[in-house]
């Protein structure tokens, strides 16, 4: 729900264009490095589901972390935490999706997964803009974190399968 609204938030905490760049770069670089490390460490292991749920849990926690951000340095820390959580959740989700997916329609299923994610993200950014316009960033972060905790609880059901 934040997406491009991060620029407005960064300016509100005293950041400038370079801080916005560094915040986004921090997230991307940490995510990229951690994707590789998590992929290496978890590859072939049976606890992919636990890593995925941990990643989703950390994502919700770090989203609530935005509530306490008052400087660009604190924003970089939250962005790094979100990068770590994405690296725990995304590759493991992809591996589990591949494992349990319909092998006869794998390209279509990946299209559905990617397409649905983009559609939901687009709708969420608009909703985030509406929330900020009529309420505040605080309301947005509480909404985001709450939705993420609910989604994490739903995803955690995978831990009791098999």
Description:
This protein is mostly helical. It contains six helices and no strands. It is globular and about 50 Å long.
Short description:
The chain is mainly α and 162 residues long.
Helix/strand/pairing class, anyone?
A: mainly alpha
CATH class: Mainly Alpha
Rg computed from alpha carbons, rounded to a whole number of angstroms:
17 Å
Largest sheet geometry? none
What is the level-2 CATH architecture name? Up-down Bundle
Defining traits:
6 helices, Growth Hormone, Chain: A, mainly alpha
Blueprint of the fold:
Layout: H1 6-12, H2 17-42, H3 48-65, H4 72-100, H5 106-134, H6 137-155
